Amino acid sequence: MRSVRNLTVLIILLTGPAMGLTALEETRISAVFTWEWDEKKDHLKDIRQDEMSLRGMDIEMKQEYLGFGMSGLIDFEETEENQWYFNWQGQIFIRYHLFGNSCLLDPYLEGSYGNFGKTGMTSDRELHLSLVPAAGAGVNLLLQDGFFLGSRLVYRIDNSAIPAAGISPLVVSRWQASLSAGVRLGGEDRHRRRYYDRYFKEY
Q: pTM for this structure?
């Protein structure tokens, strides 16, 4: 029950910042798939099929160059001893989009703060939870009809326990890579049409 209460509080804390951001110009919602990456991996082939990969959703509220948002990722893990574990990652982030709303390629820089947790679902019910500040960069390919594809690489700056909570931290990799696909809602396409109209009229 303690892990359920902690997860409920986490969801509430992550949902709160989004309530004040809905008035921004554009909202982006995407499905995200991640891989953990550490110093033992030199190539993409070093990622094992049975390693933990998190899946979830990412929502960003964007106004020209700046974006604010949050993400929630989960994974169900089974060990060789037939033990099941529930892993999750939740974070809030701020992004700076280098080209604003005027280009098909949308590179950005990101800073985030969140948590990474793990709890057992069978006999082992121990809870592990870490606070994780991170920095990263990514790029989106903005497609027609409001769709986009993206990739991102994040570096976890620190991995610390929650002060005075008595919960042991979870050991996580320093790097996380991700792919995403989503939809854009709002006025972003309107700005791009004006950009394209001006370009083609001039040339």
A: 0.73
